[in-house]
Automatic annotation (TrEMBL):
Organism: Natronobacterium lacisalsi AJ5
Molecular functions per Gene Ontology: ATP binding; ATP hydrolysis activity; catalytic activity, acting on DNA; DNA binding; helicase activity
Pfam name, any one: WHD_Lhr
Signal peptide, first to last residue: none
Protein name, per record: DEAD/H associated domain-containing protein
Keywords from the UniProt entry: ATP-binding, DNA damage, DNA repair, DNA-binding, Helicase, Hydrolase, Isomerase, Nucleotide-binding
Domain Helicase C-terminal: 278-423
Every Helicase ATP-binding domain range: 36-237
One of the GO BP terms on file: DNA repair
InterPro entries in the cross-refs: ATP-dep_Helicase (IPR052511), DEAD/DEAH_box_helicase_dom (IPR011545), DNA/RNA_helicase_DEAH_CS (IPR002464), Helicase_ATP-bd (IPR014001), Helicase_C-like (IPR001650), Lhr-like (IPR017170), Lhr-like_DEAD/DEAH_assoc (IPR013701), Lhr_WH_dom (IPR045628)
PANTHER family (alphabetical): ATP-DEPENDENT HELICASE LHR-RELATED (PTHR47962:SF5), ATP-DEPENDENT HELICASE LHR-RELATED-RELATED (PTHR47962)
PROSITE patterns for the chain: DEAH_ATP_HELICASE, HELICASE_ATP_BIND_1, HELICASE_CTER
Length: 969
């Protein structure tokens, strides 16, 4: 052991060095070598190092040392440390016990549990008490901690919020000298983090300056995250290169004879079976493997296939019950399970024992996520973390190659800090007043604006937020004296709003047979898809819905063997692909194009790419076949410098590799402006490489070119905001934001419970809540700046814009199916189709004669004759309408009509024409959700072999409507 090796440990006192020897720590790890010196000197420090490299001990050894030491004892210490004040047992007057010495804050309760196990040994050896406090802590433990605070308290951001308002706990917090924030990158990019940043400033008002320590495996912009950690105060950054410790292989499995056999067993396609087989083989080759997927939907789909093969692989994600998650964690740790299939629930270092390999199924979408996930493997010092990305199609492979290369080079995405979240300000003001009592507005503003995300918050905006809280009776604001005071509702608000995680309704899923809870389903899934008889996948098993209890918020289910089913449509599941990653996919295309034009084949081009990207010859060659077909079809190659606009029928695709948020923004501009021209809605779907529009026949390709070449780039944000004004997406965010202001309850109180989206948007348009909802949509989902830059590039000639008639191989590359391909193919969905048929037959419709306009009846679909006719006049021009469409009936019967009534009447006549031509079949199709006369005509006009195909097409249109509903407002 060299002097350089032990230099870090010599900065610690003899008591802690003795603990190191006892624990077997002879040589500092890389992060300990570089970070312990500034930490021991009391400096604010951000430590960035791979998972499993000893970051926790790096942070806590100097903290423990400071808590036990009097005068400095270690060699090389630049200055002595100050001893903490003695405990009550040692004070002559037996005064009050000392407070907390250090807080260790983690984003997950499960991490708290692991961290307590990890730090208790050190506490026992050093005679320091280490304890944990979060939402599950018992009242007895809470009371004990208030009376006799532990030296080190492990907690969550939300529990810190609660502690800041308790009188005795505030006294105990006055002694805090160190705060450690674990997984600081995760918090920096969220509203929870913005809330924590203010919480730390409130803590500083109590305890004075304290040492702040941030720990993270990946940070794309260390200076920004350091600013977040310290509130812009000086901070040392100590970083260990994460990419050099990661070995990633990208593989698209080649289909084998075994896959043909496996496909029959799994009732899926051979290509899909090859994914399952490769993952199975990789798990078998290693001792313990984490298999990461991007969505809970995919986790359930893949898990169901492993269960079908009876493989020892568990499923772990956030919608499973706590008991189910702990069970699979323990079984994996004990070796009973060889693999654990998980989502981001496992990214943050929950202790599941040793992991020697990580599989990522499909592109991880972001460099940060890949490094976090692959970093779970190889936890011994200086060991390389090894992993495999299993890809499924060309987009997926090229994206994974870009991310793997960027991970190796350390090109990590920046943390997207929420700048000036007004609902966070609204959340914190009541807490400040509840804990301090009457507070001058300027004092509260100073505390909030010291937090890094709020450094640019204007006092005028802060005043508007406080005024809104006053209107909602959350606080009382004396504008004359500029004083904020509590009201009768302040205390209740504070404790009901400790978290910035939105309150979203969930339904508990219970097995009828056992009565036990299996997991949860989001309300939106239950409302849109779930009905008695529907089948879905959860915990890797198939379940049939028996009953939905809206009052209790429960879905009762029974297990089935049928492998076909609707996979839960989880909320917020799409991980956005950054522009840099998508742009590199465009670069790969551009590099390949001239080689194909010169006569090279896919194998040769793939071999060339292998010099830069970590993949085998088959994987690269298979992905390059798509590009080879693009060149052979004489289609232009889309890149970030050449956009290709292709059209077939009503479908227009703009091939644009700019990532999710920029394409979503450009897509909204196109759909909004083209919709205005056509006077009707334009369907929109986007992925990182394409913007797909479903346009009326009146829209020409030249119209799309005109929008792209003629729209002022400075107007992008305004156009998108106008388009958002009546959307469900904005109303959903606005409801969440206004709840944090206490406004939603006030508006609901004026009506009869739930408030309509239209009323909510209209009522709150000129308020801080509307401003925040718009900011949040742009922050999370859109990129107006990059979309504007694309328009500027097109208009300046820097970006070529070319057109192509018909679809191209790259343009048809399409979106991922989110794991659904791992379930049975569509011809094996008999139970689902039968359920759809029964539901539609039992749906009610209004039949209206559009000839005499007198006859109207409301009836079930199954009671409608094969060819309906009016009993009054004998006409067969019978419109089939939704059962709540009385306003359409009124519009048809009105003698003088306004513009809206004219549209309703026209729609009714189109429906009547369809029923006259196709009878009951048209009535069935138009009874479906979101299927009007146009879509019904498309369904009916397809040639089919059987009735199941008819209902399958209806189901497809219903799913398309559910997926794109927010664009049809």
């Amino acid at each position: 052991m060299t002097d350089g090796d032990v230099a870090a440990f010599t900065r610690l006192g003899s008591t802690v060095r003795g603990a190191l020897s006892e624990r077997g720590f002879s040589t500092p790890t890389a992060p300990q070598q570089v970070a312990i010196p500034p930490l021991a000197a009391g400096q604010n420090t951000l430590v960035i190092a791979p998972t499993g490299s000893g970051k926790t001990e790096t942070a806590m050894l100097p903290v423990f040392d400071d808590l036990v030491a009097g005068e400095g004892e270690g060699e090389g210490e630049s200055e002595p440390r100050t001893a903490r004040r003695p405990s009550s047992a040692e004070t002559p007057d037996g005064g009050p016990p000392e407070g907390f010495g250090a807080l260790y804050i983690t984003p997950l309760r499960a991490l708290n549990r692991d961290m307590l196990e990890r730090l208790e040994w050190w506490g026992d050896y050093l005679d320091l008490e280490v304890d944990v406090r979060h939402g599950d802590t018992t009242d007895y433990q809470r009371s004990k901690q208030a009376e006799d605070p532990p030296d080190v308290l492990i907690t969550t951001p939300e529990t810190l919020q609660a502690m800041l308002t308790g009188e005795r706990l505030r006294e105990a917090l006055q002694d805090v000298s160190h705060v450690v924030i674990d997984e600081v990158h995760e918090l920096a990019a969220s509203k929870r983090g913005a809330q924590l940043a203010i919480g730390l400033e409130r803590l500083r008002d109590l305890a004075g300056e304290m040492q702040r320590i941030g720990l993270s495996a990946t940070v794309g912009d260390p200076d920004e995250v350091a600013g977040f950690l310290t509130g812009g105060r000086p901070c040392e950054i100590r970083e260990i290169d994460v990419g050099s410790n990661v070995d990633v292989d990208v593989r698209k499995p080649e289909i084998t004879e075994e896959d043909e056999e496996l496909a029959g067993k799994l009732m899926t396609e051979p290509d899909t079976a090859s994914h399952v087989r490769l993952i199975r083989d990789l798990v078998a080759e290693h001792e313990s493997t984490l298999i990461f997927v991007n969505t809970r939907q995919t986790a359930e789909a893949v898990g169901s296939r492993f269960k079908e093969l009876d493989l020892p692989i568990g499923v772990h994600h956030g919608s499973l019950s706590k008991e189910a998650r702990i069970d699979v964690e323990d079984r994996f740790k004990s070796g009973e399970l060889d693999g654990l299939l998980c989502t981001s629930s496992m990214e943050l270092g929950i202790d599941v024992g040793s992991v020697d390999h990580v599989i990522q199924y499909k592109s991880p979408r972001q460099v940060t996520r890949l490094l976090q996930r692959i970093g779970r493997a190889g936890h011994r010092q200086d060991e390389v973390s090894r992993g495999t990305i299993v890809t499924t199609r060309p987009d997926d492979t090229f994206e994974a190659l870009s991310i793997a290369r960027r991970a190796r080079e350390g090109e990590v995405e920046p943390a997207a800090i929420h700048e000036g979240s007004l609902d966070v300000v609204a959340n914190q003001v009541p807490g400040i007043v509840q804990s301090r009592g009457d507070t001058h507005l300027r004092e509260a503003y100073d505390t909030v604006s010291r937090a890094y995300p709020f450094r640019n918050l204007r006092e005028e905006t802060f005043r508007e937020v406080v005024s809104e809280l006053d209107r909602n009776r959350i606080v009382w604001f004396d504008e004359g004296e500029d004083r904020i005071e509590t009201t009768g509702g302040t205390w209740q608000y504070v404790y009901a709003n400790l978290s910035m995680i939105p309150d979203e309704e969930t339904y508990e899923v219970h097995d009828i047979a056992s009565g036990g809870q299996i997991g949860t389903l989001d309300e939106r899934f239950v409302v849109n898809f779930a009905e008695p008889g529907e089948v879905f996948v959860q915990r890797g098993e198939m379940w049939r819905i028996s009953e939905i209890d809206d009052e209790e918020g429960r879905v009762k289910v029974s297990p089935i063997e049928d492998p076909a089913g609707e996979v839960p449509s989880w909320i917020g599941q799409e991980i956005p692909v950054p522009a840099a990653v998508a742009g590199e996919v465009g670069e790969i295309r551009e590099v390949a194009r001239p080689q194909f034009e010169a006569g090279a084949d896919a194998t040769a081009v793939g071999r060339e790419l292998s010099n830069r990207y970590p993949a085998d010859e088959y994987t690269l060659g298979e992905a390059c076949e798509q590009l080879e077909r693009q060149v052979e079809s004489e289609s232009p190659m889309p890149t970030a410098k050449r956009l290709v606009l292709e059209r077939q029928g009503r479908t227009i695709v703009l091939n644009a590799p700019f990532g999710h948020t920029a394409n979503e923004t450009l897509g909204r501009v196109l759909s909004s402006l083209l919709g205005q021209r056509a006077g009707s809605s334009v369907g929109l779907e986007t992925d990182p490489y394409r913007i797909e529009l479903e346009v009326p026949t009146s829209i020409a390709t030249s119209d799309v070119l005109e929008v792209l070449e003629g729209t002022d780039p400075d107007h992008v944000e305004t156009i998108v905001e106008l388009g958002l004004k009546n959307s469900d997406a904005l109303a959903f965010r606005l409801a969440q934001v206004s709840a944090k202001f206490g406004a939603l309850k006030r508006w609901q109180g004026q009506g009869s419970g739930r408030i309509s989206n239209e009323r909510l948007l209209a009522a709150l348009e000129d308020t801080p809540m509307y401003e925040e909802a718009i900011r949040e949509v742009f922050h999370e989902d859109l990129d107006a700046e990059r979309a504007s830059a694309v328009l500027e590039g097109i208009q300046s000639g820097e970006i070529d814009l070319v057109t192509h008639r018909g679809r191209t191989p790259v343009g048809q590359g399409g979106r991922s199916s989110g794991g659904k391909e791992l379930l049975a193919p569509e011809n094996a969905d008999a139970s689902v189709i039968e359920t759809v048929r029964e539901r539609l037959q039992n749906d009610r419709v209004i039949l209206l004669c559009t000839h005499c306009k007198d006859w109207k009846v409301k009836t079930k679909v199954k009671r409608v004759r094969d060819q309906p006719e009016c009993p009054e006049c004998g006409s067969t021009r019978i419109a089939s309408l939704n059962p709540w469409a009385d306003e359409v009936v009124q519009a048809v019967r009105a003698e003088e009509k306004d513009e809206e009534q004219e549209k309703m009447t026209e729609r009714a006549y189109r429906a009547a024409s369809l029923v006259q031509s196709h009878g009951k079949q048209a009535v069935i199709a138009m009874a479906a959700r979101g299927v009007g006369p146009h879509n019904a005509a498309q369904i009916i006009n397809k040639l089919r072999e059987d009735e199941s195909a008819f209902y399958r097409d209806i189901l497809s249109k219903e799913r398309e409507y559910a997926r794109t509903q927010s664009f049809w407002d």
